[in-house]
Amino acid sequence: MKKLLFASAMALSIFTVSAQNKMGYINTNELMGSMPEAAKATADLQEFQQSLQQQYQDLNIEFSVKDSSFNADSSKMSASMKEIKRKEIITKFQELQGFEQKSRQMMQEKQEEKVGPIREKAITTIRTVAKENAYTYVFNEETLLVAPQGDNLLPLVKAKLGIKDPSPKATGASPARPAGAKPAAGGRR
Question: Per-domain residue ranges for the chain?
Answer without folding.
Answer: 25-167
